[in-house]
Design a protein that fits this description.
Radius of gyration: 15 Å
Order of helices and strands: EHEHHEEHEE
Oligomer: single chain
Largest sheet: 6 strands, antiparallel
Number of strands: 6
Distance between the termini: 32 Å
Structural class: alpha+beta
Strand order of the largest sheet: 1-5-6-4-3-2
Number of helices: 4
Helix content: 25-40%
Amino acid sequence: MAGLEGVEQPRRHASATAARWSPAVEDERALEALELLGNPAETEVRLPSRPESAARARRLAQVVVLRQWGLGPKVTEETVLLVSELVGNAVRHTGARYFGLRMRLLRGRGCLRVELRDPSRGLPCLMPVRELDVSGRGLFLVDQLSDRWGVDLEPHGKATWFEMRLPER
């Protein structure tokens, strides 16, 4: 369980699947978001802590993972879902006005890493999820679909992150 500085969560892949998003259709809005907001693969992109920022963050993740890095639909779909979950948690629970999104391709380690920074020192908590729960599944999905995730406390807040292994080419 996350909650300690520098603690990471090693993951085994479960049968949880990302749903309801398909990169099959080119998303021009994703390219527009990249031009307007910046590239989270090059620098931290600052987004307002509002519900509509989840859509912007999803579009940025889509264009970076699918178009820029060429990692394919499955990795893109899962990354987009997990970015959306981290953003949703930041918007709901941190009380921050802004958060920062950063994405890195760590080829030497064979993974991609997504970080969401916010000024809150409150740590996210992985809660048990029951079948009929309609909320509280965000970190559960991050836990199930990523290979590792964790939280790093920083001087002025924290970075919540996840890593996913790159598919063999």
